[in-house]
Here is the input.
Amino acid sequence: MILVAGEALIDLLPVPGEQHRFDARPGGAPFNVAVGLARLGQRTSFLGRISADGFGRQLRAHLDDVGVDLSMAVAAVEATTLAVTDIDAAGRAVYSFYASDTADWQWAESEVPETLQAGIRALYAGGLALRFGPGAAVLEGLMQRARRPGSAIIFVDPNVRSGAGVCMSAERARVERQLGLAHVVKASEDDIALLYPDRDWREIAAGWQRMTSGIVVITLGPDGASAFTPGGAEITVPAVPADIVDTVGAGDAFAAALLDGLIGEIPAGTGPAGLLRIPIEVTRRLLERASVSAAFTCGRAGAESPDARTLQDAVERAHRAAHGP
Here is the structure.
């Protein structure tokens, strides 16, 4: 079982060709990762605060439809968070959030487990839920408790956002503190640029790897992705060509495929120690597979990640395109 903790919100996506009209789609980085993992065949449970309003019912129905376990999801009385999405000429998504006092951030200690139940092999935490109080401290406490026994892999995606009222020095301190609890970090080059202006992303990623002693993966948009491994290797794979509709959920599709692949390579019971035994060429293959998953999502409107069969077919097509039949 993989436990995914964080927000479940509604993405309001512009309807192509129709001004001032939006399509309400389920979203939020952790929500997208939970859906992606379930579609890939992983037993997945979602630890999130989901509103009882109409949007919340839509979110619950979508998770239930793909087979995500909702036994740990909290029925929240607050409203659902909304993310209004603007798509630029290159298909990149820019977000404005309606998030004041909404369901996702109001965690109480009583709503999260004291310890992870037996059988949970990984905890994914990421998105805005690790930033917005008061709940961010509660989820960070869960990460701290989950790390102590050493049996579950902790996967963190900082998912940094800019905007009015954001203090980047505080963001750096927050991200560095939380990454210190992680065994696997997935971030983007844009995350690093926001946190460390004018610093080389490789320098930062290598420093993060030393901090975690695990695997740090940086997505680079059209330049592919790079992994920094416990053995000191840097592995880079090219981006997979895609006809981009938008980039909504692409990083989350990458994260889901990466975590799915890592869990598949680590024998049950070995936990974080199993990361140290993954060969470089296997790590490269997992990066390539995650990149194909991201490209698939870029070719569709909204956060539409592939299922296991679709992803395998896409991986095989990408391999033939790169290396021939």
